[in-house]
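5-formyltetrahydrofolate cyclo-ligase, Herbiconiux oxytropis. Tokens?
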Amino acid sequence: MPTDESNDKRALRAELRERRRTRPAHVVDAANAGFTANLIALATEKQARTISAYLSTSFEPDTRQFLNWAIADGRRVLLPIARQDGLLDWAEGDGETETEGLYGLPEPVGGILGPIAINDADLILIPASAVDQHGTRMGWGRGYFDRTLGSMEKRPPVFAVVFDDEILEQVPRELHDAPVDGAVTPTRIIRFS
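Tokens:
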């Protein structure tokens, strides 16, 4: 039986998904330039040589310009590949070559490295529907990143990538939800204590 938190999450996700889908194109374009600049600043600050990121969908903050910069700058980029068993495999990506994966999400084309490859990352960038002021991240409901982060012995800094209006006072939290260390928005880099 679903908990109140899972019902609250489902309703909030639907609202946030609709907000993303109806965001005007000129607003998204301006935001994407800000995302790229702030992601570059964060990767540079953290001196991240290996970065775990993701290929954004059309309604997510665009990570592709950042991925192009990281690869051109000689950084290793690990991108997730969803598996049926709820785990993530990883592949080194070029930010451009991709295929449609599980759930219709974009995935990299390349040799599969397996779930433990994420342990090489110096910085992890993950998608989110929202993040609250305490670092509670709400994903899209499949739990892939929560399982991945929860299984890591030594976790590098983890930052969610969200629009400014997706930093909320509080999001519903369940026991399995893995917190993030910060969030990257078009206008700022936020660190949670």
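The chain has a mean pLDDT of 89.
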